[in-house]
Amino acid sequence: MDRRSILKKGLTATAAVGAAALSAPALSQGRQEWRMVTTWPKNFPGLGVGAENLAKRITTMSGGRLSVKVFSAGELVPPLQALDAVINGSAEMSHGAAYYWQNKNVGLSFFTGVPYGMTSREHAAWVRFLGGQQIWDEIYDQFGVQGFLSGDTGTQAGGWFRKEIKTVADLKGLRFRTPGLGGQVWAKLGASVTNLAAGEIFQALQAGTLDAAEFVGPYNDLALGFYQIAKNYYMPSFIEPGLATEAVVSKSKFRALPADLQEIVRSACQAEYDNVASDMYANDPRALQTLVDKHGVKVLRFSDEILKAGAEASAEVLAGVRSSDNALAKKTAESFVAALTLLRTRADITDSPYLVAREKFFKFK
Ligand code: CA
């Protein structure tokens, strides 16, 4: 799907709100239908398709006892109101990124990704085996919902810039789109930061209200057409080293399911997490080739000066959460730091040296 049709779907979606809101979930003879609202444009590569696949998995695995109907961004509610729709009961399920809701609790950002934080594998290890999920449940408990990991982008791209940036001074006043804690880091570096949903970024770049934007990586960014406006593509991101998507369910609706259907929802999320991560990993490098070969995109790296200042700003943002009076956010940050301290030993001893050695010495014969 091209960018035009993605945007068109987003724009015309508002008209459908009235009609869609009237249809309540069907309930008959042990069969029920859940509405899943998402933050993604329809047919959006990787992440949006992941939401659609998750719905299909649950429907198929349950033999239709629990069918899930997907509403892409704007079809039932605007993209950045997806979680509220589950909280207020106008949907049973949502699919998006937990850091979109950091205004509800900044601790939620950690379940998407943290600047200079964990890679995808490290993040899943923390959430599943080092205490993350329990704290995530505690935060979402307050809102009557529950979150599951449902996808991961891998290490993201740093973003699209109209002009090359070389020094921290070049970032002063730069109007840049990026959400979450990463947005706070860029603001510390001098940028003027805003968050926009996927379908709104291209227009803002085109209209000149943004100087630069990051969204995900080559696979998603190619589909959104940013290369048409900005040719300087900085890689990798230092604020989103791994970025998880979430599926959120209404806790009361989830608890009311029989045990097998609960397990189906859980397992489908886990399966789709894995599928999305592989999809992104396989298709990002392909899309990057297209961006470079067909569209003349210039791939650049942030300078050490920017990377170093970004690391300092990231440490300050993390320290800010650790010293805040928000007890659950603080608990999240402490758990995250303890897990990363452990996982870094693996990165230092195993993963990084292996990748360095392979890139340095190994060639196909
Ligand atoms: Ca991003």
Give the names of the bound compounds: calcium ion
Structural class: alpha/beta
CATH superfamily of the domain at 3-154 and 242-283: Bacterial extracellular solute-binding protein, family 7
- How would you classify the quaternary structure? single chain
Order of helices and strands: HEEHEHEHHEEEHEHEHEEHHEHH
Which parts are unreliable, with pLDDT below 50 for 5 consecutive residues or more?
1-23
Approximate strand percentage: 5-15%
| Record field, number of beta strands | 12
CATH class group of the domain at 3-154 and 242-283: Alpha Beta
User: What is Rg?
Assistant: 20 Å
Note the gap between the termini.
Answer: 39 Å
Describe the biggest sheet? 6 strands, mixed
Helix content: 40-55%
Question: For the residues shown, what is the average pLDDT?
Answer: 93
Within the CATH hierarchy, at the fold level, what is the topology of the domain at 3-154 and 242-283?
A: D-Maltodextrin-Binding Protein, domain 2
Number of helical segments? 12
Shape: globular
CATH architecture of the domain at 3-154 and 242-283: 3-Layer(aba) Sandwich
Attribute tags:
single chain, alpha/beta, D-Maltodextrin-Binding Protein, domain 2, 12 strands, globular, disordered N terminus, binds calcium ion
Fold blueprint:
Layout: H1 3-22, E1 27-28, E2 31-38, H2 47-61, E3 66-71, H3 82-87, E4 93-96, H4 120-129, H5 132-141, E5 145-152, E6 159-161, E7 175-177, H6 180-188, E8 192-194, H7 198-207, E9 212-213, H8 218-224, E10 232-234, E11 244-250, H9 251-255, H10 259-295, E12 298-300, H11 304-322, H12 327-361
Parallel strand pairs: 2-3, 2-4, 7-8, 7-9, 10-12
Antiparallel strand pairs: 1-2, 4-11, 5-11, 6-9, 6-10
Helix pairs in contact: 2-10, 4-5, 5-12, 6-11, 8-10
Bound molecules: calcium ion.
